[in-house]
């Protein structure tokens, strides 16, 4: 290849990998298998190694995934949390064994452990008590999720027996299949988006702001690594066995192996038996047992030389593509779904497979009647991962993505940078109408107790509700005519709707479902523009004068209020007494004493809960930010303040004040 071509290929690979990272980590909707992703990554690494002139410190090859969120305190790991190099064949595993033997000059024992597919966690213990729980983050720093981790029953808060004074223990937090299935059933009822797999459900749960909610999700944890000074055993396996006596639940079914043959028979055994496990696994981790040999072997830049991950192959079958259906989601996004000749896969009969979006159809170059390969990874819906083009009937045409909405016929639109095509007919297309109503009643919006997506479907089918204002005209007699609706449930809905008239203006605004007006934007608008009337009259200049409101949002708001049906809707909602005035207009005690000042809070406080303190800052016109920057005005330090925040404030010379000093500011 010419250098120019190499460069182009590298840039293309980086862009592709970033997109897949985004799909995986942010959207939780991967469009390729792990196997294919690793293939792209190893192509990139190979090219970058061969042509160092094109290296870039921001290349996706330079970083492992990142799960840092803003709400948690970030802390540095005492020992970095590395990842493992992956292998997909028995030969690669034998190569690993040979390499270990060559480098160490001995034939050490190995430990095979199931690779649990959850989210990794590092716990530190001091004098037998749990001190801190930190996620992997970027491997160097992670989120302090101690409060959430404490809710996991199988994690010991106090240890028994003969434990070291200080040490770290690492393991995997998982959501067992049974809990995952029940959670998704619940989410269907609430009209919330489903978790794609137990891994996403576990990591999503661990990052929830409410630890009570975490507790209700019934996570579990299994441990596989202990780090510290002067540990009592040289054997990794033996040390772990000992830690079971201190109170830890170990990664189950670990086994010691003497050589490649024993390792291979472990892999073969668990490739089958893993289907019976109560949690998801995606491979086996093979480690050198002796810590002394581990140290001798050391590390490459990203992973240890003494361990390797063997990934199970996702089960794959081939079948015929009969055609493609298009489903319109509640947001208007159109998802193509493949209809397949029924085929047995992973214990179930598969008839449909997800195709995600039009790019995926094009990328696969799908034609009707193609012989396609279908895979079932950790995801609920199987996916098409390839086409056998050699078997293609030349008379069959390529699948063309539809141009009009299959529900209402409107021409579909696609905005720049978006993967999905959308139906734009928000007030006339049935799934979108139902979606709007579901959004309106959802917990973060009007929080209408007793109403869920099934009832919304029924109400819509019966013609009782066509928009959100119709909800407030419902009465008990109408409700009890619905299928499976008892008197009590009907009462609850009527009561729930009545209570929703106390929901503050900012949430009413969010509930309307104006494009780009999410929770935060709604809050900002409510604070600055203060009432529905003023918002309706606000012109473009007024709207963009509000902090963080840009052209796109301003245009969307003006556009929304320019439609007659929306004005009628607003007038009806006003009649039903929904709150159309901002809280700060009404709230007692509100001042502008902190106007223009931004605060970061850290630790726990005597006079306030953390949320209470944040609310108080806002009540006085101040702004809460989650991480310290040069623009922050004050860090309010509570008890047990995070050391990294304090350090950053000192470096940036941000004043650190106590809770008492804060109270003086607002007095
Ligand atoms: S050892 C340097 N052991 O797989 C040692 N990891 O890419 C790295 N995992 O982030 C970890 N089961 O989340 C290890 N028995 C096991 C594991 C395991 C699952 C996960 C872990 C890690 C990733 C490795």
Features of this protein?
binds 2-(butylsulfanyl)adenosine; alpha+beta; 667 residues; 5-stranded antiparallel beta sheet; 20 strands; 18% strand; 5-stranded mixed beta sheet; Helix Hairpins; OB fold (Dihydrolipoamide Acetyltransferase, E2P)
Low-confidence stretches: 63-70
**Gyration radius, rounded:** 28 Å
Q: What is the CATH topology descriptor of the largest domain?
A: D-amino Acid Aminotransferase, Chain A, domain 1
* Proportion of residues in extended strands: 15-25%
From the N-terminal CA to the C-terminal CA, the straight-line distance is: 71 Å
CATH class of the largest domain: Alpha Beta
- When the domains are counted, the total is 6
CATH arch. level architecture of the largest domain: 2-Layer Sandwich
Bound heterogens, unique: 2-(butylsulfanyl)adenosine
Order of strands in the sheet with most strands: 2-11-10-3-9
Shape: globular
Strand element count = 20
- What is the helix tally? 26
- Mean pLDDT comes to 88
- According to CATH, the homologous superfamily of the largest domain is DNA ligase/mRNA capping enzyme
* Main β sheet profile: 5 strands, mixed
Helix content: 25-40%
Structural class: alpha+beta
């Amino acid at each position: 290849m010419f250098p120019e071509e190499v460069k182009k290929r590298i840039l293309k690979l980086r862009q592709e990998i970033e997109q897949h990272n985004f799909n995986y980590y942010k959207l939780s909707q991967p469009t390729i298998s792990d196997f294919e992703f690793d293939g792209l990554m190893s192509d990139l690494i190979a090219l970058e190694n061969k042509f160092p002139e094109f290296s870039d410190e921001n290349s996706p090859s330079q970083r492992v995934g990142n799960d840092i969120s803003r709400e948690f305190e970030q802390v540095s790991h005492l020992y970095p949390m590395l990842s493992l190099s992956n292998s997909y064949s028995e030969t690669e595993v034998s190569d690993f064994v040979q390499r270990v033997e060559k480098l160490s000059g001995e034939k050490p024992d190995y430990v095979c452990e199931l690779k649990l597919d959850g989210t990794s966690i590092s716990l530190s213990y001091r004098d037998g008590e749990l001190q801190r729980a930190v996620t992997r983050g970027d491997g160097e720093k992670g989120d302090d999720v101690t409060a959430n981790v404490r809710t996991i029953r199988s994690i010991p808060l106090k240890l028994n027996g003969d434990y070291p004074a200080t040490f770290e223990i690492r393991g995997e937090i998982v959501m067992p299949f049974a809990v995952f299935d029940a959670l998704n059933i619940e989410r269907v009822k609430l009209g919330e988006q489903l978790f794609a797999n137990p891994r996403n459900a576990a990591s999503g749960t661990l990052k929830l702001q409410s630890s009570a909610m975490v507790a209700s999700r019934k996570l579990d944890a299994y441990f596989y690594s202990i780090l510290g000074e002067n540990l009592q055993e040289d054997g990794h396996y033996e040390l772990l066995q000992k830690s079971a006596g201190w109170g830890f639940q170990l990664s189950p079914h670990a086994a010691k192996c003497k050589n490649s043959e024993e390792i291979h028979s472990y892999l073969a055994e668990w490739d089958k038996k893993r289907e019976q496990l109560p949690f998801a696994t995606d491979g086996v981790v093979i480690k050198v047992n002796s810590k002394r040999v581990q140290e001798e072997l050391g590390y490459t830049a990203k992973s240890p030389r003494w361990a390797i991950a063997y990934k199970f192959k996702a089960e794959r079958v081939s079948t015929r593509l009969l055609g493609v259906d298009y489903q319109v989601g509640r947001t208007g996004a159109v998802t193509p779904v493949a209809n397949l000749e029924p085929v047995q896969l992973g214990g179930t009969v598969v008839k449909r497979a997800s195709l995600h979006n039009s790019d995926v159809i094009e990328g696969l170059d799908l034609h009707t009647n193609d012989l396609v390969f279908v895979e079932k990874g950790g995801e609920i819906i199987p996916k098409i991962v390839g086409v056998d083009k050699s078997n293609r009937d030349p008379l069959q045409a390529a699948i063309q993505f539809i141009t009009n909405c299959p529900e209402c016929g409107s021409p579909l639109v696609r905005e720049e940078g978006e993967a999905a095509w959308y139906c734009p007919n928000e007030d006339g297309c049935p799934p979108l109408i139902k979606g709007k109503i579901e959004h309106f009643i959802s917990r973060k919006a009007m929080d209408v107790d007793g109403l869920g997506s099934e009832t919304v479907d029924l109400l819509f089918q019966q013609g009782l509700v066509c928009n959100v204002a119709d909800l407030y005209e419902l009465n008990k007699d109408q409700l009890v005519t619905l299928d499976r609706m008892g008197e009590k449930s009907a009462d609850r809905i009527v009561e729930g709707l009545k209570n929703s008239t106390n929901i503050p203006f900012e949430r009413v605004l969010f509930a309307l479902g104006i494009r780009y007006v999410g929770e935060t934007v709604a809050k900002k608008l409510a604070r600055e523009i203060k009432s529905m009337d003023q918002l309706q009259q606000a012109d473009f200049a007024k709207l963009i004068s509000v902090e963080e409101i840009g052209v796109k949002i301003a245009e969307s708001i003006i556009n929304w209020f320019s439609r007659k049906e929306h004005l009628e809707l607003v007038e009806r909602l006003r009649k039903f007494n929904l709150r159309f005035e901002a809280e700060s207009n009404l709230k007692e005690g509100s001042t502008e004493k902190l106007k223009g000042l931004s605060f970061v809070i850290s630790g726990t406080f005597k006079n306030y809960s953390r949320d209470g303190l944040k609310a108080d800052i806002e009540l006085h016109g101040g702004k809460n930010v989650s991480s310290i920057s040069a623009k922050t005005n004050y860090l309010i330090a509570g008890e047990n303040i995070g050391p990294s925040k304090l350090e950053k404030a000192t470096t940036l010379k941000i004043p650190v004040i106590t809770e008492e000093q804060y109270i003086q500011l607002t007095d």
